[in-house]
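Researcher: Structure prediction, please.
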Amino acid sequence: MTQTPLPKTSNPAQSALEAAGIFSLEQLVEHSEAEIAKLHGMGPKALRILKEALAERGLQFKDEGQSELSAAGFLMQLKSHASPAQQQAYERYFPGQSQEFIGVRMGQVFALAKAHSEMPLAEIETLLDSEIREARVGALSIMEKSARGKKTGDERRQALYELYLRRHERINTWDLVDLGAQHVVGAWLVDKPREVLYQLAASDFWPERRTALVACFAFVRRGELDDALKLAERLAEDPEEYVQKAVGWLLRTVGDADPRRLLAFLQQHAARLPRPALRAAIEKLGKAERALWLAKS
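Model: Predicted structure follows.
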């Protein structure tokens, strides 16, 4: 397809469009006028020039209802906030993985997710399929915010839960698991059978094992500790450090709810726990008590 260049506008508007990956009128029509207006640097005059250029070609911005909550619109806004400096900063937090990021601050990703919390599930799934890490973070943040919404009905909560489990291969890092497991998976299972968590705990895919643990925070915060302790016991000797840390954090939260049950668990299993799990589990104990437990491991 022939690509029609964008008309000349102000430098800030031109830069905003380029940052969003828009270089032609054919790409412009994939977005609504409201989405383009939100781009940093896009003023009323530049927007009018774009509309006139579209009209000359018999084109127009995408209908608001079709585009406002789309994956394409989310990605466009996401790209407009990207910066090389932030992409480099991610190397400190995600060594060896910074190439997955385009350089958008997490605060901005979460703000966009809040504005898109009613996004249709098919569009959320499109974000999950993105190779851009911030897009997948956005997808999980949308799911989490939607699942927690006071006006969200059970039908959508169930659909979000099912989408999370069905596309778990795309939820493949610790940060993605932690965004959704408690409020999308755990909260849905609060008043339902929880066998699925034990199936996840037996998975060869470590992010699924981490999901089984992180989902239990939804129960522990309600004072329900049994599943958390059973799953921590099953995964006490897990070889993956991201799972080990989740075991420890879950046990620490169990200790917040009932210190006696944490100590009883440690009496029986402390020697089996890898150091990352044990250190996290005993973090809130006194210094002398921590030293005693570490000496036993």
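Model: The chain has a mean pLDDT of 92.
Researcher: Thanks, that helps.
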